[in-house]
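So, who can interpret the following?
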Amino acid sequence: MQLRYNFRMYPNASQRAALARAFGCARVVFNDGLHARQQARAEGLPYISDGDLSKQVITQAKATPERAWLGEVSSVVLQQALADLNMAYRNFFASITGKRKGRKVAPPRFRSRKDGRQAIRFTRNSNFKLLDDGRLRLQKIGNVEVRWSRRLPSDPSSVTVVKDAAGRYFASFVVQTTDEPLPEVDSEVGIDLGLTYFAVMSDGTKIAAPKFLRRAVRKLKRLQQAVSRKQRGSQNRAKAVVKVARMHARVADTRRDWQHKLSTAIIRDNQAVYVEDLCVVGLGRTRLARSVHDAAWASFTAMLQYKAARWGRTFAKIDRFAPTSQRCSVCARLDGPKPLSVRSWTCLCGAVHDRDVNAALNVLAQGRWDNSNACGTRVRPARVPAPRPASRREAGIRPHAACSTRSVGGISVL
């Protein structure tokens, strides 16, 4: 499978200037291509093909005085910027026609020089090279110092140079990995994700939510106040903005490191991992939006998914609408919805449940059922056998009764 390996870069002053030119040229080519296609559509002309667009905004543009400076950067960088535009259009068309699953994709928009993140990509055609002294040679940039934290498993097919809002530079390599599967283990786990506890395992383990953003909110507030006191457009305001970006980057890096360690431990210790398919976008629109985004469930489940595929483990998401908090994990009885203030409850069968542990057990049972083995073994908890039919005078059940009813032959049974 293909993976990305990120390493910190430390370009000198001249290399930073060359990278700034490359960022600007790639942005201009992207915007020129987007403007050309939008103008053609407004005039009723046919869609400009990828080849014709490349000739128009790169080859022919270099011959004009207004865009002659495009020749100062690597041509591969310009071609890759145009490739990003073409991919954005293909994703947009696939989304509106229904060929692309998931949320609808918006059409591409113009890039701004004020964006916090700038990126360019070099492929093998640009002849980038990893030197023996640990430096990275980039065409028309120079030999850039890289801080190598680990070895690359194979020769990279491309490298993306990224400058984030905090002013840091990174080299992101795409490599092909062929890892050996981990030794098989007998344990499987279901995970219930939450806010008070970040993850509750089906074996009863509870992992407290670290709340990295909440812990840094006071310092972020002071830094944001310092930005608001500076005059717009001044150098002092720009410096204050960078300080805020560095604080956000520190929070994001700490959260990512913690999630990597946790996800690796879970995948290493369990043969199969099952989680809920949470609607993070919808939860991010509620009053709990800050806590939801601070938890970063989507990035954590993505780590579990690719690490399971990398090391030969099973990973699956159960149905989003499965009533994991309403079902008894012992007798499988549906006990109805419960407010979040209810942290423990007692089923009619006599079992006393912790809300989160019970949900994790139901996630595990649902995941096993959806991913049953080749023999077709039934692993979901068995249904409670139906009791004897109720008498005629007992048939009138109140609508708010705890247990659900169904009609069989004109009488109501559980």
Summary: The chain has nine helices and 16 strands. The mean pLDDT is 87. The two ends are 50 Å apart (CA to CA). Residues 44 and 387 are 70 Å apart (CA to CA).
